[in-house]
């Protein structure tokens, strides 16, 4: 994957970069060095970009690692920082949110309108007796009210937990109970691929078994007839009708929890990641400005659902704190046709577009006619997050969407980190397709070998050697698992769980999770590297590569491949792909078997669940946690197919089981 092609930032982009941006690698090096030599001073300068009701008296308290406190003694409110502070400026009538429903409905909320909606909901919740410290669950579609709900909770100091609207009643129930939430904010229903998703019905189902919940606030999205339980359920519109439009934001301790977010669970049982206020908001605002080169006139579209951390930091808290215009879209990317995203970009003149590799691979599969049929000239910056982006997909994004004019920021971060940690700075950093490039200023990123020794070059575990403001503070009600999961491997270091390579130029290539590295005959092979080679083949749409135990080699490589729409699976194609891998990487990487599949199992945030595929090739069944799986039938098909293939192979070898 050590592509030699380097793409310097387009000249016109650098010339027009916003003033907050680094414009050269020298700028970046200066910032990075300043942050490394005096981290507290550096982060204090960033924190000063927020509005504080009382200033902190200590930047960092790291006396009881791994439990950090940032901006100790300071008080502020995230909601006030996202809204109120813009009201005294010309931005008061700037569009804060541009919204489009899947059925093409449109709404625009200015900062003043957003303020009124948030204040009214906060007042209504107060009237129900909800207050600081009480936990809320937000189970909403992608409508402006989802952001309103988050900001109203933040305004009162009620930690929220957003549960992705695509999750089942069961997944919702687990989260409500873990959090012991008092209130659930939801909607009657929502639209996804033209179908109605009955959110309130799922809430009712979940609440059969959630004793902590006293109130349910229901936003009327589609106006469906639903059951309303007397005394417990309230229509949002009724509750806020005639309520005061003024609600003072509660000044909160910098370490007051802002939200708990349960991670997607690619690696196991969901964990309740806790983020607090001052440090998180500092990281959100600073990265928003550095990485997205944000300007007043930008139309900023991060396609993530608010159910994921990306939706928290780069749909709500980061861009609104920066006073940006945020685009929000309710529905599916391919509805009613595969060009819906391009159509939205054309219509709203979107200038910054931030999406995921999984979405990009789906677009490639649908063909270039869809984006080519739309005017994408408003775009000036493209981004990706969530998984490593295969170089072939990067190249497509660069050419077909960005028309070789728009820098691509490949941003590496985690739910736990709160904000972007590794990324190009678009006006400064030369890009290498497939590399997230370099750590941001203030991020003490280090690669270590298995003994915890820092290494300059080559392959190692990705760790962070110093606390940073946006870091998770703990796992909800589980300090022990927090210490165990992230801090026990190498004392004093945050363990990301990812493996990466640093090349000659100091560029980082994230290879994925440590567990996803395959050990064949004593060699450590990156599944991601093989996947990238497969995806670069003309026949392949998507690929996932995992290891299965093997008597002789230790582990054997299994490749799961979805082919492009016009290609049929056959032994010939399998051989071709095998030879292609050997040619591109070497004989060591030759797969034991190539499995052609209709779809790969993914989390609901679109990430490939290699853990499940590993289980399938090992045991032919799935016993691990599947609550975050997007489509269970994919797993059923895969394990069925695995069994059949085994039987056929067994028969061929003459050793029927
Ligand atoms: P869980 O931790 O519950 O298994 P998850 O790790 O999928 O879920 P996230 O916090 O959303 O949940 O994802 C972070 C992970 O995604 C990173 O640790 C990394 O493996 C991967 N990732 C994110 N962005 C990138 C990127 N730009 N390049 C490579 N990998 C990335
Ligand atoms: Mg993770």
From TrEMBL:
Which InterPro entries does the record cross-reference, listed alphabetically? Ac_CoA_lig, ACAS_N, AMP-bd_C, AMP-bd_C_sf, AMP-binding_CS, AMP-dep_synth/lig_dom, ANL_N_sf
Q: Which reaction does it catalyse?
A: acetate + ATP + CoA = acetyl-CoA + AMP + diphosphate
The AMP-dependent synthetase/ligase domain is annotated at 93-467
**A Gene Ontology biological process term:** acetyl-CoA biosynthetic process from acetate
Residues reported in the UniProt entry to bind CoA: 192-195, 310, 521
The question of whether Acetylation is a record keyword is answered with: yes
- GO molecular-function annotation terms? acetate-CoA ligase activity; AMP binding; ATP binding; metal ion binding
Cofactor(s), names only, from the UniProt record:
Mg(2+)
UniProt: ATP binding residues: 386-388, 410-415, 498, 513, 524
Name listed for the protein in its UniProt record: Acetyl-coenzyme A synthetase
Q: Which organism is it from?
A: Candidatus Korobacter versatilis
